[in-house]
TrEMBL record, chain A:
Membrane-spanning residues: none
Keywords tagged on the record: ATP-binding, Nucleotide-binding, Transport
UniProt organism field: Streptomyces palmae
Gene3D superfamilies: P-loop containing nucleotide triphosphate hydrolases
A cellular-component GO term for this protein: membrane protein complex
GO molecular function terms attached to this record: ATP binding; ATP hydrolysis activity; transmembrane transporter activity
PROSITE patterns: ABC_TRANSPORTER_1 (PS00211), ABC_TRANSPORTER_2 (PS50893)
Record InterPro entries: AAA+_ATPase, ABC_transporter-like_ATP-bd, ABC_transporter-like_CS, ABC_transpr_LolD-like, MacB-like_ATP-bd, P-loop_NTPase
ABC transporter domain mapped to chain residues: 21-261
The name this protein goes by in its record: ABC transporter ATP-binding protein
Automatic annotation (TrEMBL), chain B:
PANTHER family tied to this protein: ABC TRANSPORTER PERMEASE YTRF, MEMBRANE COMPONENT OF TRANSPORTER-RELATED
Protein name: FtsX-like permease family protein
Primary location recorded for the protein, binned into one broad class: membrane
Membrane-spanning residues: 268-294, 315-344, 364-385, 411-433, 445-478, 499-521, 732-757, 782-804, 824-845
Length: 262, 859
């Protein structure tokens, strides 16, 4: 199974299509000839709007590469990627930058914040860059939801790891992107701080209707998602809806075992 | 061994980052070595020339002119021709040859263009003699045989396109005469820039010197086996006292002294500028190593964790510095030799021609170059090395490679403020000083302390200044501007050091521009205030005005009066207190001088000193020798008799022109000095009849059309000339300071390049969340501009403070008007912003090109 295309093309809210992003026959290969390594092998995937999607898989499965390609951070070798109805494969850097700025939000595993800016400035940074005024009410709501009210004037090095990640989430949300990509956003956090951030991501999907795609290898993190895609050797091998942590763990064990056998 | 290995690996791993530091070392060392090689080559060229042109023993009159002296009187001291024969008969002499030389002849071609060098080098006219063949070979034509024949050297002939048969006019003191070129000679040693015209014995004596059968000196050649010293003794025994007898060595020394002081000034000035560049380079090296150490914090922590000692870490950084020093210095020494060759080419244009095949590299040159480069680099790296040694093993475990914001310490701030305050106090003292000597000590101290103070509080100032600049300049750039501001502020120590490097050069520029423009303004003001004459006439390069020309000028129509101005030369004055002082400040002129140059007096009127048997003395002399109005002084004139003169006026010392001069009437001088020993006019003043100013000016210019060595200027042109002269000098100094500024710019580039590397992840993050390449580049550029403007603001502020203090101090010496050259200051400030933009080009491009994913993934 290399395809995870199972969502109707229309529907959902706000006049947008129900699919926030899609990949069609995406191949990502490094090197050439003997040393050619295929990170993504003809992947088809649809990301549902207003849903929390987790991408899982063992190290080297291509899950981060898939996310980077979907988010327009990395280029593909062949195939197409669309954000909403815009094909981003083949876009020039300028357009791509604009797209990331205006339509996509990011949360990285670490180093999400500029050390020179305080929490609030970091949150509004994408809009500042774009020269847009943040929507005050929305910003207040985001800040309130993230629970950082008293710490907005703090610099990142005055915040704990969990607080820093929450600022990163707030930044991703504040610009109201169509889709937020998270690259192991809780990878560096302890379980309590991790749970805080994940709960918050979940709420932003439920309450704010946000679309989120998150790469993780943590079954607990994946259990917050509506849908989990499993990647192995550059292919989508399975998917699961509304899973629990235990189900995810079982599935992972299964893949691991199969991986060892084959 | 491991330490050495890691040092080597690090050095080569970061060779790109080391490159700019290496260039800084290279430039400084190259400048030092270039200066040394150039001056050594110049010296050795002149030594060879003097050795070749100096006879074994030279006999001249006691008060003979030295090689470069300008002839001030109508006739120079001479020896009768009979002396030549007398000396020829002496045992130990093979040749005894009479010489007549003059450097006071202006030689022009048919178009009245000067044939001799117009700057620096002398034009020597001399008699052709057989012994001359040793140094000068006739390459075409023949030697001069008659009164209208001349031979010129091939360099001059080439430069001025002279050929056989061309007509030359020689403007000599007794009068002009024409000659035809009949021969061309080639010098057998390098002639660095003198033009030589050979004439016959008789022509030289009669037309140039104005005597018959006499020589200005006699050249003796010693027989083999007779030493020059022995011959000198024999000559002295034969001729008795009253003559100047010099061996070859003595004459070479005398000649070298004449140009040596000029070469020394040039050498030390250039070494001074090289020193400034070295100082600026130190900042660059300190910054580079600080940043490299900061970037390697985790790595160093790991080394410490697995058991490296502090000493080892410290040592490994120093070894890297040593490598950098060696590489930079070796290249610098080589570059210095290249620079010396370049300097020779440049100087050839300025009239000092050297032969690159005679390039003199003394062993001291590479030794000095290498030691400066290596010692400076290692010392500069010492502080960062020590900091590296202090990195705790814990650093290895800490998340993120970002160095913590360096907090500029309070102690540092306090010391800096203290130093600056002390420096400012010294400057205030200097400005208020009564005596120039005390004041200049204070000024020096003040400059040094404020400079060090500013360097020490640089990081603190960076905070204020960058914020202020950001508020003005960066606001308009929105968030990109804000981020640039934050980046410039995140490590104040680094910004401080980078800015300080630029500050040093710009402070000097600002200071000199203030002093220079105050000089022009003061002189103009003084000119307006004291010069009553419409026209000022003077010779170029210290040329005096030939009596015939003076006569012609006096006869120009439309003039109300003409004032002759003669310096009486060394004069011995015996004051009533019985003491005798020798001074060269006695000036003889016409009574109209009092109107032409209004000299303030403390008692009496200047015009009274032009009465019969009268003179004026200056305030300082009067005070020192307790001379009062009406006192009678005994004045013994050079080449003349003694006079008893009454003090009829005491002039104020508070004047810019001719400070300390003592005035007498020319008629007084003429009474006591024989006519042929009356000095020629140093300058002349003239005023037109009312309403005829422009006609008279044109007439004067026309009269001097055929005498390019003499210039007439009205007040406007004279001011313009002063401005040009000072401007030219300033430009030369700015050119030399450019070196220090270039090193400082390298520093800015280096700081930015390293911080771009350091902020790889940030750059990746910003690009990921939507900062465009263009915005990224703009951000880096703005940061650079802010750092450059910070340096400029500090430098210009400091430099202007120095310049104003210097003006206040020099007000005692006549620098009365303060003039701050705002256009220059503003241009420098704007120029700094441009420099900032240029410095950021490469780093900004690099930041823009950075691959987002790699940037995020970097540890």
């Amino acid at each position: 199974m290399t395809s995870a295309v199972s969502i109707p093309r229309t529907g959902g809210s706000g006049g947008h299509t129900a699919v926030a992003a899609r990949a069609r026959q995406v191949v990502k290969a490094y090197g050439s000839g003997e040393t050619r390594v295929v990170a993504l092998d003809h992947v088809d995937v649809d990301i549902a709007r207003g849903q929390f999607t987790a991408i899982m898989g063992p190290s080297g499965s291509g899950k981060s590469t898939l996310m980077h390609c979907l988010a327009g951070l990395d280029t593909v070798s062949s195939g197409q990627i669309y954000i909403d109805e815009t094909e981003i494969t083949g876009l020039k850097d300028k357009k791509l930058t604009q797209l990331r700025r205006d339509r996509i939000g990011f949360i990285f595993q670490a180093f999400n914040l500029l050390p020179t800016l305080n929490a609030l400035e970091n949150i509004t940074l994408p809009m500042d860059i774009a020269g847009r005024k943040p929507d005050r009410a929305w910003l207040d709501r985001v800040v309130e939801t993230v629970g950082l009210g008293g710490r907005l004037k703090h610099r990142p090095n005055q915040l704990s790891g969990g607080q820093q990640q929450r600022v990163a989430v707030a930044r991703a949300l504040a610009a109201r992107p169509e889709i937020i990509f998270g690259d192991e956003p809780t990878g560096n956090l302890d379980s309590r701080a991790g749970a805080e951030v994940l709960g918050f991501l979940r709420r932003s999907v439920d309450d704010l209707g946000q679309t989120i795609v998150m790469v993780t290898h943590d079954p607990v993190a994946a259990s917050y998602a509506n849908r989990v895609l499993y990647l192995a050797d550059g292919r989508i091998v399975d998917e699961m809806h509304n899973p629990t942590a235990d189900q995810v763990l079982d599935r992972m064990k299964h893949f691991d075992a199969r991986g060892r056998v084959s | 061994m491991t330490v050495l290995k890691t040092s080597l690996r690090n050095f080569f791993a970061h060779k790109g980052r080391m490159a700019l530091s290496a260039i800084a070392v290279l430039l400084s060392v190259a400048f030092v070595c270039g200066t040394l090689v150039f001056t050594d080559t110049t010296n050795s060229t002149f030594d060879k020339l003097f050795a070749a042109t100096s006879p074994d023993v030279t006999v001249s009159p006691k008060n003979a002119l030295k090689g470069g002296d300008v002839q001030k009187t109508r006739t120079p001291p001479t020896l009768p021709a009979s002396r030549v024969e007398q000396l020829k008969k002496l045992p130990g002499v093979t040749h005894s040859v009479g010489q007549t030389d003059s450097t006071s002849v202006t030689v022009v071609d048919r178009n009245d263009e000067r044939v001799g060098p117009s700057n620096g080098g002398p034009t020597i006219t001399t008699n052709w003699k057989e012994t001359e063949q040793r140094i000068s070979k006739v390459v075409s034509g023949h030697i001069p045989r008659g009164p209208t024949e001349a031979m010129v050297d091939s360099d001059t002939a080439d430069k001025k396109h002279l050929k056989l048969g061309d007509d030359l006019r020689l403007i000599a003191i007794p009068g002009d005469f024409h000659v035809k070129i009949v021969g061309i000679t080639e010098f057998q040693v390098t002639n660095p820039g003198a033009a030589i015209v050979y004439l016959t014995d008789a022509t030289m004596q009669q037309r140039v010197i104005g005597v018959r059968n006499a020589y200005t000196s006699i050249a003796l050649t010693a027989k083999p086996g007779v030493s020059n010293e022995q011959l000198k003794k024999t000559v002295i025994a034969e001729m008795g006292p009253g003559f100047k007898v010099q061996t070859k060595a003595e004459l070479v020394d005398e000649s070298r002294d004449q140009i040596g002081s000029f070469l020394d000034i040039m050498k030390y000035a250039m070494l001074g500028f090289a020193g400034i560049a070295v100082l600026v380079g130190i900042f660059l090296i300190v910054n580079t190593f600080s940043m490299l150490v900061a970037q390697r914090t985790r790595e160093i922590g790991l080394m410490r964790a697995i058991g490296s000692s502090r000493m080892q870490i410290n040592g490994s950084v120093l070894i890297e510095a040593l490598l950098l020093g060696v590489v930079g210095s070796v290249l610098g020494v080589l570059g210095g030799i290249g620079l010396a060759v370049g300097l020779m080419k440049i100087m050839a244009g300025a009239g000092l021609e050297l032969d690159t095949s005679e390039l003199t590299v003394k062993p001291a040159t590479p030794i000095v170059g290498l030691s400066i480069g290596i010692v400076v680099t290692v010392i500069s790296a010492y502080i960062p090395a020590r900091r590296a040694g202090k990195v705790s093993p814990m650093a290895a475990l800490r998340e993120s490679g970002m160095p913590a914001d360096a907090k500029s310490g309070r102690i540092r701030g306090a010391i800096g403020v203290l130093l600056t305050a002390a420096g400012a106090a010294a400057l205030v003292m200097a400005a208020g000083a009564d005596k120039a000597a005390d004041g200049s000590a204070f000024l020096g101290l003040g400059v040094l302390l404020t400079l060090i103070g500013f360097i020490v509080i640089g990081p603190l100032l960076a905070g204020f200044v960058v914020r202020a600049l950001a508020a003005v300049v960066l606001r308009i750039f929105g968030p990109v501007g804000r981020m640039a501001e934050r980046n410039a502020l995140r490590n104040p120590r680094r910004t401080g050091a980078t800015g300080s490097a630029l500050m040093i050069g710009l402070a000097l520029v600002a200071c000199l521009s203030v002093v220079g423009s105050s000089m022009v303004a003061s002189a103009s003001d003084e000119l307006d205030k004291s010069v009553g004459a419409d026209f000022i006439i003077a010779g170029e390069q210290g040329n005096l005005i030939q009596p015939k020309i003076a006569e012609r000028l006096a006869a120009v129509p439309g003039l109300d009066h003409v004032t002759h101005f003669k310096e009486a030369g060394d004069t011995r004055i015996t004051t009533p207190d019985g003491k005798t002082t020798t001074t060269d400040r006695v000036v003889a002129s016409n009574p109209t001088f009092a109107d032409d140059l209004r000299t303030p007096t403390v008692s009496g009127k200047l015009v009274d000193s032009y009465g019969e048997g009268a003179m004026s003395v200056n305030e300082g002399f009067a005070k020192d020798h307790k001379v009062k109005m009406g006192d009678t002084l005994t004045v013994a004139f050079q080449h003349g008799r003694s006079a008893k003169l009454k003090v009829a006026a005491i002039t104020s010392d508070d004047t810019a022109f001719n400070k300390g001069a003592m005035y007498i009437n020319i008629t007084t001088l003429e009474r006591y000095v024989p006519a042929d020993q009356i000095p020629m006019n140093t300058m002349m003043f003239a005023s037109a009849k009312d309403g005829q100013e422009s006609a008279a000016y044109a007439a004067l210019k026309k009269e001097l059309k055929h005498d390019p060595q003499i210039q007439v200027k009205d007040q406007t042109d004279y001011k313009e000339m002063m401005k040009d002269q000072i401007g030219g000098l300033l430009n030369l100094i700015y050119g030399l300071l450019a070196l220090a500024i270039i090193v400082a710019i390298l520093g800015v580039v280096n700081t930015l390049a390293l911080s771009v590397v350091e902020r790889t992840r940030e750059i990746g993050l910003m690009r990921a969340i939507g900062l465009s390449r263009r915005q990224m580049r703009r951000m880096i550029r703005l940061e650079s501009v802010v750092i450059a403007l910070f340096g400029a603001l500090l430098g210009l502020g400091l430099g202007m403070a120095w310049g104003i203090t210097a003006q206040k101090l020099l007000a005692l010496e006549g620098l009365k008007t303060l003039d701050i050259p705002w256009p220059t200051i503003i241009i420098v400030f704007i120029g700094s912003a441009v420099v900032g933009l240029v410095a950021a080009l490469a780093p900004a491009f690099r930041a823009g090109r950075m691959n987002i994913l790699k940037a995020i993934a970097t540890d």
